[in-house]
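Entry for flavin mononucleotide complex. Fields follow.
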Amino acid sequence: MSSLQKPLALRSGSVLPNRISKAAMSEVLATPDGRVTPAHLQLYDTWGASQAGLLITGNVMVDGRHINEPLVVDGLHPDNFTALKKWALLGPKHGVHIWPQLSHPGKQSPKIVNDVPLAPSAVPIDNPMFQPPRELTEDEIWDIVDRFAQAAHRCEKAGFSGVQLHGAHGYLLSQFFSPHHNRRTDKWGGSFDNRMRFVSEVYQEIRNRTGADFNVAIKINSSDFQKGGFTQEDSLRVAQALDAMGIDLIEISGGSWENPVNRRGTKESTRRREAYFLDYAEKVKSLIDVPLMVTGGFRTKAAMESAIDSGAVDIIGLARAFAVDPYVARNVFNDNEYTSSVQPITTGIKKVDQMAVMEISWYTMQIHHISQGKAPHQKAHGAFSLPQVLFNFWKNGRAVKRVRA
Ligand SMILES: Cc1cc2nc3c(=O)[nH]c(=O)nc-3n(C[C@H](O)[C@H](O)[C@H](O)COP(=O)(O)O)c2cc1C
């Protein structure tokens, strides 16, 4: 049996049936006011049938006023509970775990949906899609802590076996970690302990309101790869602190909107090893006991197995591979030569190809095919998906603003 098919016991007592996880990918399938739709259920029914031991959902927002993009799920929408229960049931149906990814975008809330994004400090993002943020007040920080805990409690009541906190890619939790984004001089900024305070409070409050067998995981960056930002040393310390607090799983990624290395890798050597963050995984693994998931770049069964066999990684996270082959986990288990067909998506225009939204838009289109019960349309040209997705972004952004007006 492949090492990828070995079960993994977590601290909570849960057992993941194997070592492949679908990493979070924003589905962009909710209604403009953030309700779950039948398309979500069809999508996760398909991905569940892939037999990946753990399916982490795309961003589920803890505040419907602060969203990372249009048509994302609002975890606290009063009318979502029945649909969340149906979504959660797909886990036991397929014998896999489904964990919603709880998220607050902070300043990474685009102006198409948000005129006043919030952040630890009023440091703008170097991207014209976003308005400069306003600094959070102390009361607002506590309100967000409470929202994360409410959302986690709701997910538990709906029947999900855990949640993952989005602490990577420049979203609010990671903004608090970063000395570049967090310039506060109160107890929420400055020293390492102060920059950790927000995630610690969120984590503790979730633990206060959920049972001991409920899984709480986090996705963190190995580094932001940004001058003056969250460094690898900081990241190692964050992982150690979360391990000591009792977290159930840490997923490693990297980068942000300003530097999307999570989908490109950092340097040629890491690209050659397939997985972008393996060097970091080896370092952090020697410092922590909690299981580690590494996401970014895995394409072949050989590389996945070798990462698990090396002992540096406990779970392989795959994102884009699930958008081009919804049954990728099952196919990896059955085919020793498996190689994902994920390729760089290009239009041939260099400036366009460098835009983060370019690749995302093509994969979102594939996710939408799967959510309609269709096969991915892998031959679609990058130049075709971009205008379509940008148009939808604009149209849906206006719809979001209309429902809020
Ligand atoms: C369409 C798309 C949507 C994504 N949405 C999310 C998200 O909601 N949350 C998240 O943590 N990462 C998100 N990611 C990043 C992936 O989880 C993953 O870190 C990245 O794609 C690298 O993994 P891969 O090489 O297996 O694709 C997204 C990626 C894509 C392509």
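NOTE: Residues 23-26, 58-59, 101, 166, 168-169, 219, 253, 262-263, 295-298, 318-321, 360, 363-364 surround flavin mononucleotide (CB under 6 Å).
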